[in-house]
Amino acid sequence: MKVAIIKYNAGNIYSVDYALKRLGVEAVVTADKDELCAADKVIFPGVGEAETTMKFLRVSGMDALIKELRQPLLGICLGMQVMCRHSEEGGDVDCLGIFDTEVKRFVPQKHEDKVPHMGWNTLTETNSDLFKGFTKEEFVYFVHSFYVPVNEYTAAVTDYIQPFSAALHKDNYYATQFHPEKSGGVGERILRNFLEL
């Protein structure tokens, strides 16, 4: 199986590569369009900022390519957010529009609401093959200041300040707001499920 990790101006790419190596998968980290199109699975990870990322994707032509891919693609954190239609990050930015929904800034409601949302939290209402074999609410690791509201593409929910989409799914596109590569055994199961799609 060929697994490709999209290489672009974002952090966290190599921690995803390392997590795949722990599962016995040698992925290629690439921005080459032919390699991405030929891959059986594509992962679109990211830690960074939406506006800068979208500028890079547009200049490189990667924005059009990502929307044309037909194999299973997994967006992680920023990768998930830029797959949405629009983000409030960076003074408002239009994104890829794969998921017809917005990315909003967390607004603390009380003193103990800290932003970014950072640390372990549970997944509920899971309804995607990413979570195959889950029998209870599982803990995964989050680091984010922006969130996607619950919508028609929501594949898992987490509650922090308000309920939000912890995962999205539409056709061949899967996405997680949390970091499976930093979520221990639960994250490994999610990555394995993705690789088995």
TrEMBL record:
Gene Ontology biological process terms, A to Z: L-histidine biosynthetic process
Gene of this entry: hisH
Active site: C77 (nucleophile), H179, E181
Pathway: Amino-acid biosynthesis; L-histidine biosynthesis; L-histidine from 5-phospho-alpha-D-ribose 1-diphosphate: step 5/9
Catalytic activity: 5-[(5-phospho-1-deoxy-D-ribulos-1-ylimino)methylamino]-1-(5-phospho-beta-D-ribosyl)imidazole-4-carboxamide + L-glutamine = D-erythro-1-(imidazol-4-yl)glycerol 3-phosphate + 5-amino-1-(5-phospho-beta-D-ribosyl)imidazole-4-carboxamide + L-glutamate + H(+); L-glutamine + H2O = L-glutamate + NH4(+)
Protein location: Cytoplasm
Glutamine amidotransferase domain segment(s): 9-195
Entry's Gene Ontology molecular function annotations: glutaminase activity; imidazoleglycerol-phosphate synthase activity; lyase activity
Keywords recorded for this protein, A-Z: Amino-acid biosynthesis, Cytoplasm, Glutamine amidotransferase, Histidine biosynthesis, Hydrolase, Lyase, Transferase
PANTHER family: IMIDAZOLE GLYCEROL PHOSPHATE SYNTHASE SUBUNIT HISH
Keyword Amino-acid biosynthesis among record annotations: yes
Official protein name in the record: Imidazole glycerol phosphate synthase subunit HisH
Enzyme Commission code: 4.3.2.10, 3.5.1.2
Lineage: Bacteria, Pseudomonadati, Bacteroidota, Bacteroidia, Bacteroidales
Subunit structure: Heterodimer of HisH and HisF.
Main location class: cytoplasm
InterPro entries: Class_I_gatase-like (IPR029062), GATASE (IPR017926), Imidazole-glycPsynth_HisH (IPR010139)
GO cellular component, as recorded: cytoplasm
Signal peptide boundaries: none
Record's function text: IGPS catalyzes the conversion of PRFAR and glutamine to IGP, AICAR and glutamate. The HisH subunit catalyzes the hydrolysis of glutamine to glutamate and ammonia as part of the synthesis of IGP and AICAR. The resulting ammonia molecule is channeled to the active site of HisF.
Superkingdom, taxonomy of origin: Bacteria
HAMAP family: HisH
